[in-house]
Design brief:
Layout (H helix, E strand, L loop, with lengths): L1 E10 L5 E12 L2 E6 L8 E6 L2 E13 L2 E8 L14 E2 L2 H10 L2
Antiparallel strand pairs: 1-2, 1-7, 2-3, 3-6, 4-5, 5-6
């Protein structure tokens, strides 16, 4: 789980370039979830850049929830995420949190 702002880019059904500011909600080596004000069709290729890494993938789900559209992106094979390449502004590392809890009395 994380939080960071990214500018997502894609082409619409008429091959017109689109872009929107999105909230990066979640990221893993194989994909991410971004929150947007508008829907993006399933299967659409999307891109965004971060300081040390660019991301590209395809929309696998787009669900409206009370505060916007949550868009799930499966990364292309060449775009696997790692903390070394890009660390979101706010990142909750669940593995580290569980390990810390196990060490506490």
């Amino acid at each position: 789980m994380c939080a960071d702002m990214v500018e997502v880019r894609w082409e619409d059904e008429e091959n017109q370039p689109q872009k929107a500011l999105a909230l990066l909600e979640d990221i893993s080596p194989s994909g991410a979830c971004v929150q947007l004000e508008n829907a993006i069709p399933l299967g659409t290729e999307v891109h965004w850049d971060c300081p040390k890494q660019s991301f590209a993938g395809y929309v696998r789900y787009c669900d409206y929830r009370e505060i916007g559209f949550f868009v799930g992106v499966e990364f292309s094979d060449a775009c696997r995420w790692s903390k070394k390449a890009f660390k979101p502004l706010h990142l909750l590392d669940l593995e580290r949190l569980v390990a810390k809890t196990k060490k506490s009395p």
